Amino acid sequence: MSTASKVRVAFYGCGNFAKNTRIPNLLQQDSVNIVAVCDSNVKTAQETAQYFNIPHVYHSENGGAHEMLGTQDFDVLYSIVPAYVRTDVEATAAEKGIHIFSEKPQAITMQVANRIDKAIRQAGVISTVGFRERYRPIFQKAREFLADKKVVHVRFQSYGGLPAAAGSEVKTWWADMEKSGGRALDWGVHATDYSRFMTGLNVVRAQAFYCERSDYATPLSCSFNYGFDNGGTMTLSFVSAGPSPKDEPWFTVFYEGGHLTIYRYDRIEVNGEKIYQAEEFDPWLEQDRTFIRAVQTGDVSILQSDYHDGLFSLAPVLAGWESARRNGECIDLDSFMDAS
């Protein structure tokens, strides 16, 4: 499309993340016009449209997402709904030539994710997934440092407080394990993606164990084991048990001859010596700007990843979840990703 034309955007999902981050980011750009919003909660959709002066509102629980696709002319669909909601809306949009921004996790099954991916690739539309940290300089610096290193092992760890109690009166979709997948799905796709980004490696085998107790709605801990395509390994630990340990690194990458550690979004150390101190940066805004620019210019090379690449970050976590259901069976990723 012409760089002088406004990019017309519709939102599928008007939750807090859309209202507080993605919509404000896009409205900072003079080249964007948000033409419609759709949400399962009609009040939320109406309030979002009113607040941001968006002209058209649809209610997704009564088929409004497909009605929006059928009646509105727009260029980009921002899909900001939870993974369990996704079925065929993104695929239908792609088939109509609409470019796709998919928040992560992209789907809760590989069957759905593959159907969306097939539609995107057959239509040739531009796509990306909300792996915004690829745009953050701290991860790009780590990637540069590791470019010539032979990675042996990656360790990721994340801590949090106790999960919600099982059977609580106020139950959100997040507290329903079969809908949310818990922290291991929500942040596991991030941790897997940024490890792939930093190391250039893909996961070929996955195994996981979950500590689930009847008093809690979601697991107290999830432990993942990955095998990389270079023979290296990775562990991911998600622990929801109480106060977090202080100043523990998120990522530790062991390579032949040393190790690199990343402390949240703060700093990088190599063998205990600080090599990078991060400055304030907004990766959400940078990703949104870059995606809109890619749609305007047709230059997909400026994107850090597309929907298809994102499958290689989603699949290992879904495979781990399935492994936990099978008492820790090791799952081959090639076979698992072929689900249709």
Describe this structure as you would to a colleague.
It is globular and about 55 Å long. It has helices spanning 16-27, 42-52, 64-71, 89-95, 110-123, 137-146, 177-180, 182-186, 188-199, 283-297, 307-325, 333-337, and strands at 7-12, 32-39, 56-59, 76-79, 99-102, 127-129, 151-160, 203-211, 221-228, 233-240, 251-255, 258-263, 267-270, 273-277, 331-332. The longest helix has 19 residues, at 307-325. The model has no long low-confidence stretch (mean pLDDT 95). Helix 1 crosses helix 10, helix 4 runs parallel beside helix 5 and helix 9 (188-199) packs across helix 11 (307-325). The protein is built from 12 helices and 15 strands. With 340 residues, the chain is α/β, with parallel strands linked by helices. A 9-stranded mixed beta sheet has the order 14-13-12-11-7-10-9-8-15.
